[in-house]
């Protein structure tokens, strides 16, 4: 059961990611990314992180991606031009990516010896557990992040408004 | 399919997925021409890392891993807001979102 | 009882300091007094030392060594002290230098009376005395070298005394440079001495030689030959004689003192000093003898055709120095020193008399423009005659005894000696001939001095006619005799040229024998006393024949000289151009050297190295800049690509070290622990 679920939603992730790369119009890429986010939310659930799964949907898929979509539609640049990348990049780039992936993969596979398996019967991290740590041990970082968000809002407003306003 | 495998997915698979997603994000970051698409690749990378964190948090039964994901999400959201505001400002100045044509510091 | 040897050089040095530093502002009388007082004082000290230390007086045993300032160099193997030593040889040299030097100082008072650099002249002259006295008093070779170099310096300063005259300045440079070449040989000799004997002290070297009586040849020959190079430079022998004729650009008293009586004899003195080593190396002795005889003959031939009176005397000096070298080369050191002494007397006399003639003729030096001065300058004529007789070897004059002694010793010295004897004999003939030629041309016949050449010089010039260093303008004089300040020393030197040889080689050699080795008694030699007498008669005959021919050719106005020249134009041209040696040296040595150094300095040094390295540095900076500039493209994708590449490298590195166990930390700790 777990395996099937994992395979399906991992597949959705990969498909969405690849589609993001292959699409020319940014709106299609944004929609693909939404697919990726949602699939990741399911995977979080499978990993026992219920709060994070919901947060992923609400924050990422629901807010960030909406923001992206708004901007795409606002600016409306249209289809991306064909990219003339340099030949060197093509020659070195793809093998390099594969090599790096190989290296990382090797490490991970090696590490499997020291790791266990994920199963659905393992306990989930409840929101209670999370909030206990968040509001007790991590109170200061929590407050600081709220300040960070405030700054981000101010910055976004300041950057995006039209010139000429006092 | 062995029963064990059906119910127990090895942790390394999640990590492999995370690696793949991250690599795809890097490739997109390098290949794409549209500024917004580049930005989206960055978000993809962040998500891949989040997956990795959650996997390890589950592996070692450390809630702190999930807390970290929480913070990453917060920062990513803030970053997305500010970054898109910048992109709008750039578009107003250059009237293009082609990364190759935005090569001067001075706006 | 202290002999105060150190006073002997120091007194003239004080005179140099006073005249050199203050002389410009002092009145001329004071400059003269200072200039005369200190050499006279030095002469006084020498006399006192001579009287006290004369063998037989019993107060001192010679050699008397005086360490007057402690240790000079004390570095590893090299120990050199400030030491003066007095022995018979040094005593002879000291008497000559201070005595004749003092006389020449008196002469200079009159000769240089109207020169602008009066104070400078006497300062340099005193400086020269200081160095020369150091040279002969030195107890070790390094101190001797100090004096050696110093007299070279003083010579340069005095030859180029009329420094605004290009030929004088060039002559000074030439003298110095050629001396330098000789000094190089001297230095090599010193290095070899040091490596062989471990010391440069004359005493210690003598002791070391005495310890090893069987040592011959080899390194000793090498030392001797190197020292011979030095001696050739200083004493103007082949191949380093070329500076001496040019040195006549200096004032005539300078020529008398430095280039006749004292400095040029330093080489002979040095060889006589080092005779211990030369005796052990027959090869080196042969070299010295051959060089001496060849130079004597060579210079005499050139003197035959010279027209400048000073040039004749210069080549004559070179020739006589050749005789001294011949004497040393046949191991007759006392005979060589005897000739050195008599030569000092009569050559100084000849130069000073020539100076008197030049002075009397307001600067004329060309003998072809002289003549008939016998009546107009009687004292000069008489004294010069004494000098000519002495150098020609007329019996009972001084030169006769000394030259004869050398020729006799040469004859007795094996096959080589005998052949060199004949060379010496021919040279004696030539000497007599050209000296009497000079005598006749200058003093006899009708006066060839044109009145116009006298009238041109509105100002009375008491030195060279074409310098502008003339202070006062006097109404032009006719040919006149010189003042007594100049004639006095002439008379004294004339007397010395007459009686100087009467001491005789036997007594002189006996006096010097503790230093130069035992003398040869003619009675005991093969041929006995009769051979001695025969050779003497031959020498006198040769001198007389020379005089006869000179009288024939130059006694009266005759066509014969012109006929000879016309008959042998090639030989004449060769002699007049001094065998083209100067041109040869210039083309073979000077020009390539100048070219090479210009190339090295200009192209290599200036161009390649300096400009090249500047260009290189700038080029590197520019090139790197060009390369790095491409990186800052402003292109986002390019930046991100490099970012990714860097990250990948780091990643691979981290993984690799984790995988393959590269524990860099442990490495560092292990290294530090060792």
Write the SSE topology.
The complex is a heterotrimer of chains A (166), B (107) and C (674).
Chain A: H1 2-22, H2 26-46, H3 50-75, H4 87-111, E1 117-119, H5 127-137, H6 139-160
Chain B: H1 3-7, E1 8-10, H2 11-31, H3 35-59, H4 63-94
Chain C: H1 7-22, H2 28-53, E1 64-75, E2 78-86, H3 88-111, H4 118-137, H5 141-159, H6 166-197, H7 202-211, H8 219-234, H9 243-246, H10 252-261, H11 266-273, H12 275-279, H13 282-303, H14 309-329, H15 333-360, H16 373-376, H17 378-392, H18 398-411, H19 414-443, H20 451-456, H21 484-499, H22 504-516, H23 528-555, H24 560-567, H25 569-576, H26 581-631, H27 636-660, H28 664-673
Antiparallel strand pairs in C: 1-2
Helix pairs in contact in C: 1-2, 1-4, 2-3, 2-4, 3-4, 3-10, 3-15, 3-21, 4-5, 5-6, 5-10, 6-8, 8-11, 8-13, 10-15, 13-14, 13-19, 14-15, 14-18, 14-19, 15-17, 15-18, 15-21, 15-22, 17-19, 17-21, 18-19, 18-23, 19-23
Structure classification of chain C: mainly alpha
On the 0 to 100 scale, the average pLDDT of chain C is: 84
Uncertain regions spanning at least 5 consecutive residues of chain C: 452-476, 667-674
Cα-atom radius of gyration of chain B = 18 Å
Q: What is the end-to-end distance of chain C?
A: 71 Å
Spatial strand arrangement across the major sheet of chain C: 1-2
The largest chain-to-chain contact, stated as pair and per-chain residue counts, equals: A-B, 84 and 72 residues
Calculate the terminal CA-CA distance of chain B, rounded to whole Å.
60 Å
Helix content of chain B: over 70%
- How many helices of chain B? 4
| Total DSSP helices of chain C | 28
Summarize the helix and strand pattern of chain B as letters.
HEHHH
Overall geometry of chain B comes to elongated
Order of helices and strands of chain C: HHEEHHHHHHHHHHHHHHHHHHHHHHHHHH
General shape of chain C = globular
Mean pLDDT of chain B: 88
Describe the largest sheet of chain C.
2 strands, antiparallel
Q: Sheet bearing the most strands of chain B, described?
A: none
- The oligomerization state is heterotrimer
Name the beta content range of chain C.
under 5%
What does this structure look like?
- The complex is a heterotrimer of chains A (about 170), B (about 110) and C (about 675).
- By secondary structure, chain A is an all-alpha fold.
- Chain A has six helices and one strand; from the N terminus they run H-H-H-H-E-H-H.
- Chain A starts with a helix and ends in a 6-residue tail after the last helix.
- Chain B has helices at about 5, 10-30, 35-60, 65-95; one strand spanning about 10.
- Chain B starts with a helix and ends in a 13-residue tail after the last helix.
- Chain C has about 675 residues and is mostly helical.
- Chain C has helices spanning about 5-20, 30-55, 90-110, 120-135, 140-160, 165-195, 200-210, 220-235, 245, 250-260, 265-275, 275-280, 280-305, 310-330, 335-360, 375, 380-390, 400-410, 415-445, 450-455, 485-500, 505-515, 530-555, 560-565, 570-575, 580-630, 635-660, 665-674; strands at about 65-75, 80-85.
- In chain C, a hairpin with a 2-residue loop joins strand 1 (about 65-75) and strand 2.
- Chain C has 28 helices and two strands.
- The chains are: A mainly alpha (about 170), B mainly alpha (about 110), C mainly alpha (about 675).
- Strand 1 (about 115-120) of chain A pairs antiparallel with strand 1 (about 10) of chain B, so a sheet runs across the interface.
């Amino acid at each position: 059961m777990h395996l099937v679920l994992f395979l399906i939603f991992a597949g959705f992730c990969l498909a969405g990611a690849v589609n993001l790369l292959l699409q020319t119009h940014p709106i299609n890429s944004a929609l693909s990314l939404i697919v990726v986010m949602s699939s990741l939310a399911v995977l979080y659930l499978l990993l026992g992180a219920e709060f994070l799964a919901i947060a992923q949907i609400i924050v990422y898929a629901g807010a960030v991606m909406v923001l992206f979509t708004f901007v795409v539609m606002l600016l409306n640049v249209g289809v991306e031009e064909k990219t003339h990348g340099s030949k060197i990049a093509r020659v070195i780039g793809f093998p390099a990516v594969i090599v790096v992936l190989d290296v990382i993969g090797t490490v991970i596979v090696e590490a499997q010896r020291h790791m266990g398996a994920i199963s659905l019967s393992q306990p989930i991290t409840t929101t209670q557990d999370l909030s206990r740590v968040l509001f007790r041990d991590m109170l200061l970082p929590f407050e600081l992040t709220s300040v960070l968000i405030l700054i981000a809002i101010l910055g976004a407003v300041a950057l995006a408004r039209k010139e000429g306003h006092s | 399919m062995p029963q064990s495998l059906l119910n127990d997915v090895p942790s390394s698979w999640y990590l492999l997925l995370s690696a793949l997603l991250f690599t795809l994000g890097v490739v997109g970051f390098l290949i794409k021409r549209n500024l917004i698409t580049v930005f989206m690749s960055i978000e993809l990378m962040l998500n891949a890392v989040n997956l990795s964190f959650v996997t390890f948090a589950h592996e070692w039964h450390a809630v702190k891993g999930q807390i970290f994901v929480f913070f990453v999400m917060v920062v990513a959201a803030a970053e997305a807001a500010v970054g898109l505001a910048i992109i709008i400002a750039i578009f107003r100045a250059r009237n293009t979102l082609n990364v190759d044509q935005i090569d001067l510091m001075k706006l | 009882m202290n002999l105060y040897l150190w006073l002997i050089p120091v007194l003239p040095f004080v005179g140099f300091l006073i005249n050199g530093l203050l002389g410009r502002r002092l009145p001329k009388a004071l400059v003269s007094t200072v200039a005369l007082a200190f050499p006279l004082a030095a002469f006084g000290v020498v006399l006192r030392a001579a009287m006290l230390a004369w063998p037989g007086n019993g107060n001192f045993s010679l050699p008397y060594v005086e360490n007057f300032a402690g240790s000079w160099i004390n570095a590893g193997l090299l120990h050199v002290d400030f030491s003066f030593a007095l022995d018979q040889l040094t005593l002879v040299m000291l008497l000559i230098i201070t005595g004749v030097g003092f006389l020449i100082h008196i002469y200079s008072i009159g000769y240089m009376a109207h020169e602008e650099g009066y104070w400078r002249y006497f300062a340099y002259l005193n400086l020269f005395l200081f160095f020369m006295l150091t040279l002969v008093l030195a107890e070790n070779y390094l101190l001797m070298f100090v004096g050696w170099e110093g007299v070279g310096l003083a010579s340069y300063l005095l030859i180029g005394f009329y420094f605004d005259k290009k030929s004088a300045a060039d002559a000074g440079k030439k003298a110095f440079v050629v001396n330098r070449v000789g000094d190089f040989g001297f230095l090599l000799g010193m290095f070899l001495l040091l490596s062989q004997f471990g010391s440069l002290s004359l005493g210690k070297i003598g002791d070391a030689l005495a310890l090893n009586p069987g040592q011959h040849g080899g390194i000793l020959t090498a030392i001797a030959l190197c020292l011979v190079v030095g001696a050739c430079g200083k004493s103007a022998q082949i191949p380093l004689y070329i500076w001496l004729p040019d040195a006549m650009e200096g004032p005539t008293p300078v020529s008398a003192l430095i280039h006749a009586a004292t400095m040029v004899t330093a080489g002979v003195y040095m060889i006589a000093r080092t005779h211990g080593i030369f005796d052990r190396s027959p090869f080196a002795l042969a070299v010295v003898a051959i060089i001496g005889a060849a130079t004597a003959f060579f210079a005499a031939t050139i003197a035959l055709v010279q027209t400048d009176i000073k040039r004749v005397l210069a080549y004559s000096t070179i020739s006589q120095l050749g005789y001294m070298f011949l004497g040393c080369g046949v191991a007759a050191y006392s005979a060589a020193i005897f000739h050195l002494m008599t030569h000092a007397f009569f050559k100084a006399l000849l130069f000073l008399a020539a100076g008197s003639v030049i002075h009397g003729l307001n600067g004329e030096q060309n003998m072809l423009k002289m003549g008939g001065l016998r009546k107009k300058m009687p004292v000069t004529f008489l004294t010069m005659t004494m000098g000519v007789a002495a150098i020609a070897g007329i019996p009972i004059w001084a030169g006769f005894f000394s030259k004869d002694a050398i020729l006799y010793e040469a004859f007795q010295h094996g096959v080589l000696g005998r052949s060199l004897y004949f060379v010496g004999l021919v040279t004696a003939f030539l000497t007599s001939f050209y000296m009497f030629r000079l005598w006749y041309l200058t003093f006899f016949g009708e006066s060839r001095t044109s009145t116009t050449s006298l009238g041109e010089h509105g100002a009375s010039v008491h030195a060279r006619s074409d310098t502008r260093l003339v202070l006062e303008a006097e109404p032009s004089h006719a040919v006149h005799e010189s003042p007594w300040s100049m004639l006095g020393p002439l008379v004294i030197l004339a007397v010395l040229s007459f009686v100087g040889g009467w001491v005789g080689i036997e007594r002189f050699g006996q006096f010097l024998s503790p230093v130069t080795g035992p003398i040869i008694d003619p009675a005991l030699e093969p041929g006995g006393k009769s051979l001695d007498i025969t050779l003497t008669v031959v020498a006198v005959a040769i001198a007389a024949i020379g005089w006869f021919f000179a009288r024939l050719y130059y006694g009266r106005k005759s066509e014969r000289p012109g006929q000879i020249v016309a008959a042998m134009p090639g030989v004449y041209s060769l002699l007049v151009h001094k065998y083209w040696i100067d041109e040869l040296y210039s083309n073979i040595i000077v020009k390539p050297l100048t070219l090479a150094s210009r190339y090295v300095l200009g192209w290599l040094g200036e161009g390649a190295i300096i400009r090249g390295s500047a260009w290189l540095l700038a080029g590197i900076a520019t090139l790197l800049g060009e390369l790095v500039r491409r990186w800052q493209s402003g292109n986002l994708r390019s930046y991100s690509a490099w970012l990714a590449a860097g990250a990948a490298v780091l990643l691979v590195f981290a993984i690799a070290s984790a995988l393959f166990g590269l524990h860099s930390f442990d490495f560092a700790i292990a290294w530090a622990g060792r």
